[in-house]
Design a protein that fits this description.
Elements: E1 6-9, E2 12-14, E3 22-23, E4 25-29, E5 32-37, H1 39-42, E6 51-54, E7 59-62, E8 64-66, H2 71-77, E9 83-84, H3 93-104, E10 113-118, H4 136-139, E11 147-151, E12 156-159, H5 161-166, E13 179-183, E14 190-196, H6 199-203, H7 211-228, E15 230-238, H8 240-252, E16 258-263, H9 274-283, E17 295-303, H10 334-350, E18 355-359, H11 362-378, E19 387-390, H12 396-405, E20 408-411, H13 413-423, H14 429-434, H15 438-443, E21 447-450, H16 461-470, H17 488-493, H18 497-502, E22 520-523, E23 540-545, E24 548-552
Parallel strand pairs: 1-6, 2-7, 8-15, 9-10, 10-11, 15-16, 16-17, 17-18, 18-19, 19-20, 20-21
Antiparallel strand pairs: 1-4, 2-3, 4-5, 7-22, 11-12, 12-14, 13-14, 22-23, 23-24
């Protein structure tokens, strides 16, 4: 065969071709897979210029596709663009204070200091009697610098007193729709902690990174993902400026991961109104599928509710504090918020946008699926493949509806791994075990794509696969919902073929077959032979995107 550029041989090639066939070798010509088979069939295809790579018993997988990863946000959340205040580097309040003080010492007075990734345990030792983070924890080390540190979930933040003042937030500032300014129960003064749409009150006054910084952060994030074996992502919140950044990088030919975008016109607010969506669809002039193999419009992202750890996910039964959370769509009560959810889903559906909606509480999951189904019934569109993002607690009825209409569940095993122990007691034991019911979804015939939601978590697909297989929590072997464990091959599909289906691109990628895009992830080990508890330590040694080696160890 003429024109073969690269042959990977003597490996365990997981084709995921529908027949679960395994091969030994892959031949690549240009940006496509030319042939797959035994060594004896593939090696003779080599020409004088063909590079041959001996995989030596390791694995060749379809390219890892992180189907819900905030690519630019992930890049901007990493040093030097932002402080890393996650529990990967922070063990308590003293560490947070030190990082803020060090950054303040290098910046002119008045400059914003931003950080990402804190969890409640990062503020162990807070001055708050309940152990919650407070402005006062940071004020004396950032007297002349406004500080905004974003919670690992992206659904909350901590602002110091200087930042609250810059945003004009006082005791008299009302809570915005779909958000909360946390207040001291005695004085009524803001504590500095902001939830959901209240984060935007401060985020809106933070100076924007320059396009050059945004694009540099995006390229750095792509390189970091390539080193992990990632070949493609879906970025679920892409604002107009971010889309312009992606177009610029695409035109320059500097992208090293494929990007599917979900458009959003209201970020950093999580509250969406019908009027905003109607105006956007009137002027945007795009729809799902616009683009090419490197950059395309996948659909639109909406929010239905918050997250369980903040008690803002919309539940049918109360949390430990007696509340049930709520929808965050525009409206002043459950009825009007439900109506808005249905209206915006229907508007986007009629304009042929795939709709992907964040929903974590059981009531929110069911409301979103009902809205999807109503839109489909009113205007059938078999290719819609609308997506329930997170899919923490859909009911059995909703799961059956998802299977009937071809809706996709986009889950987050890494969030479960990271936050499972902290959630215990916040919700009742039944929901704690059922949280992210992957096995139930798959058994019903729902396509499940798993993802990192980075920078909510660090985007390590290996740990995600281990968690899907074991259902164990970070730092322990506590099992959450052992009946929801899935096989290793099912978990691998959730990071390869299922994301391709979510994108409507299964004919082009997601498996290893002649004619498909040459996106491959090569591991030093046999993926199917390592112990379940060693999946997180698999070694990516080569990442190939479109036939080009983007990472080689």
């Amino acid at each position: 065969m003429a024109g073969v550029d690269l042959i990977l041989h003597s490996g365990r090639v997981a084709t995921l071709d529908g027949r679960d066939s395994m091969a030994e070798a892959v031949a690549i010509a240009g940006d496509r897979i030319a042939a797959v088979g035994a060594n004896t069939d593939i090696l003779p295809l080599a020409g004088p210029a063909t590079r041959r790579v001996d995989v030596a018993g390791g694995s060749v997988l379809p390219g890892i596709n992180d189907s819900h990863l905030h690519l630019q946000f992930f890049g901007l959340s990493r040093p030097p663009f932002s402080l890393d205040v996650s529990d990967r580097v922070v063990s308590g309040l003293d560490d947070v204070r030190r990082l803020v003080a060090e950054r303040a010492g290098t910046m002119p007075a008045g400059s914003w200091i931003t950080g990402w990734g804190w969890t409640e345990r990062c503020f162990a030792g807070s001055r708050d009697p309940g152990g919650r983070p407070r402005s006062g924890d940071l004020d004396d080390v950032s007297t002349h610098h406004p500080v905004l540190l974003t919670h690992f979930s992206g659904h909350a933040a901590l602002a110091n007193s200087c930042a609250l003042a810059a945003a004009g937030i006082t005791a008299d500032t009302p809570d915005p729709d779909g958000g909360q300014i946390v207040r001291d129960p005695t004085s009524g003064q803001p504590t500095g902690e902001l939830h959901e749409s209240a984060v935007a009150l401060v985020a809106d006054v933070v100076g924007e990174p320059t396009p050059a910084d945004r694009q540099a952060a995006t390229l750095a994030a792509m390189r970091e993902l390539n080193a992990l074996g990632v070949t493609a992502v879906t970025d679920p919140i892409v604002t107009p400026p971010m889309l312009r950044d992606y177009v610029a990088l695409h035109n320059e030919g500097t992208m090293t991961t494929r990007v599917t975008t979900l458009l959003n016109w209201s970020w950093p607010s999580v509250t969406t109104s019908t009027s905003v969506i109607e105006e956007a669809t009137r002027y945007v002039g795009a729809a799902t599928g616009l683009g090419d193999d490197w950059l395309r419009v996948g659909g639109c992202k909406l929010f239905a509710d918050g997250i369980p750890i903040l008690r803002s996910a919309w539940m049918s039964r109360p949390y430990d504090d007696g509340c049930c959370g709520s929808l965050v769509t525009d409206g002043h009560n459950d009825e009007t918020r439900l109506a808005t959810l249905g209206s915006v889903v229907d508007t986007l559906h009629r304009n042929r946008f795939q709709v992907q909606v964040h929903a974590t509480g059981d009531r929110a999951c069911d409301a979103v699926i009902n809205a999807f189904a109503a839109a489909m019934d009113a205007d059938p569109w078999p290719q819609a493949r609308h997506v329930l993002i997170h899919a923490n607690l859909p009911s059995d009825d909703s799961i059956r509806t998802m299977a009937k209409h071809g809706f996709v569940a986009n889950t987050n095993a890494l969030i479960k791994w990271q936050a499972s122990d902290a959630l215990r007691g916040v919700v009742d034991d039944e929901r704690w075990h059922r949280n992210i019911p992957v096995r139930s979804l798959l058994d019903a015939g729902v396509v499940v794509a798993d993802s990192s939601d980075a920078p909510v978590t660090y985007p390590d697909w290996r740990q995600a696969i281990e968690t899907l297989v074991l259902r164990e929590a970070k730092g322990s072997r506590t099992l959450s919902g052992p009946d929801q464990r899935i096989s290793r091959k099912q978990a691998l599909r959730a990071w390869t073929s299922a994301p391709a289906y979510q994108e409507g691109r299964e004919a082009a990628k997601g498996s290893i077959a002649p004619g498909k895009l040459a996106d491959l992830t090569v591991l030093a080990e046999d993926f199917f032979a390592v112990d379940d508890h060693e999946l997180h330590s698999l070694t990516p040694v080569m990442t190939i995107v479109g036939g080009t080696i983007r990472h080689e160890r």
